[in-house]
Amino acid sequence: MFLGQYLHSFDDKGRLTVPARFRDSLAEGAVVVQGLDQNLMVLTQAAFEVVYQRLMAMNLTDPAARALRRLILGTAFPLELDSAGRILIPQNLRSLVGLESEAMLVGQGDYFEVWAPVPWKDQETELHDPAVNAQRFATLDLSTR
């Protein structure tokens, strides 16, 4: 499970150190894709397979389905942890979301997001606004039972 926030730096070869707590979940490999915000998503192989099957089941005549497939499958890149616990994120994906020397890794349960620090700070500011949250989350059921 991916939980928490971690700030890590890219090395000179574009490799990103994965937090030690995340590494066991990536042992079987992972896939990085363009996220739905100004970020990347790193999914375990199992989580990506679920997303892939859902994408493949979508109606090809639906323009939104085709666009979503392009967005996710067209940017998908397989990842493997190296012996030092790093992943290599392709330059085109790093450029797409403005990643330069540092990245914020944000756990999302079954996957984690990779953000450039400035857009993440903007996202965090928005997430900490109680008035906005009261309206945004009012219709969602976040029950513990």
Chain-wise SSE layout:
Layout: E1 5-9, E2 15-17, H1 20-23, E3 30-34, E4 40-44, H2 45-57, H3 63-73, E5 77-79, E6 86-88, H4 91-96, E7 102-107, E8 111-115, H5 117-127, H6 130-136
Antiparallel strand pairs: 1-7, 2-6, 3-4, 3-5, 4-8, 7-8
Describe the structure.
Helix content is 36%, strand content 24%. It has 145 residues and is α+β, with helices and mostly antiparallel strands. The chain has one domain: 3-Layer(aba) Sandwich (Chemotaxis protein chec), CATH 3.40.1550. The strands form 2 sheets. It has a 6-stranded antiparallel β-sheet. The protein is globular and about 45 Å long.
Task: Tag the structure with descriptive keywords.
single chain; alpha+beta; Chemotaxis protein chec; six-stranded antiparallel beta sheet; two-stranded antiparallel ribbon; 6 helices; 8 strands; 36% helix; globular
Concise synopsis of the structure shown:
By secondary structure, the chain is an alpha+beta fold. It has helices at about 20-25, 45-55, 65-75, 90-95, 115-125, 130-135; strands at about 5-10, 15, 30-35, 40-45, 75-80, 85-90, 100-105, 110-115.
